[in-house]
Write a structure and sequence with these properties.
The chain is α/β, with parallel strands linked by helices. Helix content is about 25%, strand content about 20%. Helix 2 packs across helix 8 and helix 3 crosses helix 8.
Amino acid sequence: MTNWGYKAVRKVLQTFGGAELAQQQSGRITGEPGNPEVATLARRAGAESCVLLKNNNHALPLDLSAPVALFGRVQKNYFYVGNGSGGDVSAPYSINLVQGLVNAGVQLDSTVLAAYESWCTASVNDPDPGFWGHWPRYYAEMPVKQDWVQAAAKRCQTAVVVIGRSAGEDRENTLKKGSFYLTNKEKALLDTVTAAFQKVVLVLNIGSIMDFAEIDAYGDKISAILLAWQLGMESGNAVADVLTGQVNPSGRLTDTIAKTYADYPAQNFGNKAENRYTEDIFVGYRYFETFAPERVLYPFGYGLSYTDFACKVKKTEIKNQTVTVQVQVEMRLHFLRQRSTVCMCIMQMQIFLPGGKSTADVPLALV
C-alpha cells in the first residue's frame, strides 16, 4: 500500500471509529490565547515536576553564552500528554522543546536545527497519530552520520539529546524496542553523539519509566539526565526553564527505577491467566528497601538539585497520634543563573520499627 493509501485508510478508521483522540500533532489546537494564569501555573508546576537524575560536573544548567546542538526528532514532534481519554484535550497552543529553548535564549546550532526542521516537516516523516488503542509509543528517529555529528561537536561543546515515549489507556508499554527499550536508531544516535561531544545532556520526554540499563551503560559519556515527563501545552517552556536554571529542579521519583525489568517483583502481575502477588505487602519501594536494595539504580524519592542543601532535624513531637517534625534547612551552594530563583528542598521522612528493620507485619513506610 502506498503512503497516500495508508493515510486514507487511517483517516477512515479514525473518523468512523471515533478515535481522533490524543497525540494529534495538528487539528487539536484551538489557537485561542488561553488563560494566562493557568498557563503560568502549568509552566511552573511542570518545571518543578522535572526530576534531575544525573548532573556530572554541573553540565546543567546550560550556559547561555555558548551554542548547543539539539538532537532527536522529539524536539519538534513532542509528546505533550499520554494516550486515551486523559489525552483527549483541545489545547489553545502547545510549546515544543525547540520553541521553549529559543524562548529561553539558548543558542541552538543552526545547522543541526535546520536538518531536523527539514526532516521532521517532510511528509514522508510525518508522525502517525494512530487511532484508539493503536497510538504510537514512539516516533522513528532521524538517522545521523558520524561526520555530521563530529562537525557539530567542533561548533558546540554541549549536545542535548531528547528521546520520547508515550503510553496510556488501552495502549500500555510493552517489552519491546520503541516502548520499554531504546530503538536501534536511538542507540545509534546516542552512540554517535556521546562519542563526539564533551558534554551530553539526555532529556527523557516520557510518561512512565523505561529501561535505564541501556542508558546507564553509557556511564560518564552522558553528563546529565533530566526526566522531563509529559507536561502539557507548556512543556517546552517548562523544560527549558529547568535546563537553563530559571527554575531549580525539585521533582522526586514516584517510582523505583531498578537495574533491569527482571528485578521488578510486579512483573508477574497483569497476566490474563493468573496474577501473582509476589510482593505480598512489600509493594513498590518497600520490596526493594527490604529485599533487593542492590538492584536499585535510582530509588523512590530520588532527585537532584542545582542547589546543595544541609538538613537537620531540630525537634520531633508525637501528640494525639500526630507526628510533628521540625527541620532546619540551609542552602550551601547553588548553580543557578539568578540568585533570586526560589529553591525548594523536598523533605522525606521514613518510619522504621525499633531497631530500624521492617517486618511482614509492619513494612517500611514513607510519610
